Amino acid sequence: MVQWKILRPAETGNNKNMTGSIKPVFYQFDHSRTEESKNNYHLSLQISIDGFCFALFHLQERKFIGIGEYVISNASNQTIAEFIDSIFAEDQWLKGTFKSVTASFNQYKNTLIPSALFEENKLSDYLSLNAGSTSLNQLKFDRLLRSEIVNCYSFSESLFNVILKYFPSTQFLHQNSTLIESSLHQSIKNEYIHIQFNRKSIDIVAFKNNKLQLQNTFDYKTAEDVIYFLLYVMEQLGLSQETTELYISGKIVEESKIYDLLYKYIKEIKLRELPNQVDYSQPLRLAEPHQYYLLIQQYLCA
After folding, report:
1. Which region, left, alpha or beta, applies to residue 287 given φ > 0 means left and ψ of -120 to 50 means alpha?
2. What would the pLDDT profile of 9-38 be if each residue is shown by its tens digit?
3. Are 63 and 57 in contact (CB under 8 A)?
4. In the chain, domain spans
5. Which of 84-88, 134-138, 167-171, 238-242 bottoms out in mean pLDDT, i.e. has the lowest?
6. 24: β partners
7. What are the phi and psi torsion angles at 249 (to 5°)?
8. Which residues lie below 8 Å from residue 258, measured CB to CB, with a gap of 6+?
9. What is the rounded CA–CA span in Å between residue 72 and residue 156?
10. What digits encode the pLDDT tens for the residues 172-219?
């Protein structure tokens, strides 16, 4: 039985002036696996400025055995790394040596460059167009083979160091890389859009004839904000509200004002389902599949 608690700065043993708190919001694992060696597992980490979640995947059985998610509230960019450090140190499912580890980042700015034009020595220049100064950040890029695009992004050096302290062989990627790659060839329609809902922002990718037309991130506060951004994107790309298929995943539920408004304006909407090429432990059946779609796809697309 997992003991849930809110972790506050004083409990982390770090800076007592640090603001914010950590709270588990979803924690479902196959507890018959507690004593198993982690050598047979892949660990997927997903990190944002307001939360952290992870999934354990048994490589030989091709089976996800658990997902844990924490909300991080009222933390600054400087203290996110300290909160992540406290989770890594205390969570029993994160202890041990994993066969492989991936870590993805969302709500961190990124820039897409066509593969044919990408030059690694210009990475800082690409990012300065979208993210400003990168002097204190770790610069990374993902080669998206399906879409022939390079996704350039950065995140704090302190967060990079915390992850490598616990998981030295981590492969890093941006959440939007997974969003783009997992969305390709997912529709029989010529035109389709996928919206990933984060807690305070949405990531939108749009496709025509299985070619990426746009990827962008928008902060939102109301359901009307979401509809405005979606319709703006569709208008700019000449996409029809009648025939364009809309896929949604992440932090959204069907019984919500956002979902109702989406249905008012878009005729074809589908919630993303868990990929069927792998298996899932019974506790994970308690999750709404679309909520952790990109976390699951992270390993499958890596």
Report:
1. beta
2. 334 434 455 567 889 999 999 999 988 899
3. yes
4. 1-183+275-302, 188-271
5. 134-138
6. 70
7. -150, 170
8. 197, 223, 226, 252
9. 17
10. 999 999 999 999 877 778 899 999 999 999 999 999 988 999 999 999
User: Could you tell me which of 234, 239, 215 has the C-alpha nearest to residue 149?
Assistant: 215
Q: Who's near 167: CB < 8 A, 6+ residues apart?
A: 43, 45, 98, 101, 103
The model's pTM is 0.90
**Mean pLDDT of all residues in 246-253:** 95
| Residue type for position 60 | Q
Q: Whole-angstrom Cα distance, residue 204 to residue 214?
A: 8
Residue type, 245: E
Indicate the SS3 state at residue 246. strand
Question: Dmax of the chain from CA atoms?
Answer: 55
The CATH number that domain 1-183+275-302 falls under is 3.30.420.250
Provide the token pair at 273.
């389902």
Task: Report the alpha-carbon distance of residue 124 to residue 127 in Å, rounded.
Answer: 5
pLDDT band for position 128 (cuts 50, 70, 90): confident
Q: How deeply is 17 buried, as exposed, middle or buried, from its count of CB atoms within 10 A (0-12, 13-18, 19+)?
A: exposed
Type of residue at 47: I
Side chain identity, residue 91: D
Terminal-to-terminal C-alpha distance of the chain: 32
CB 20 within 8 A of CB 80: no
According to CATH, the superfamily of the domain at 188-271 is: Protein of unknown function DUF3822, C-terminal domain (3.30.420.260)
- The C-alpha atoms of residue 238 and residue 34 are separated, in whole angstroms, by 52
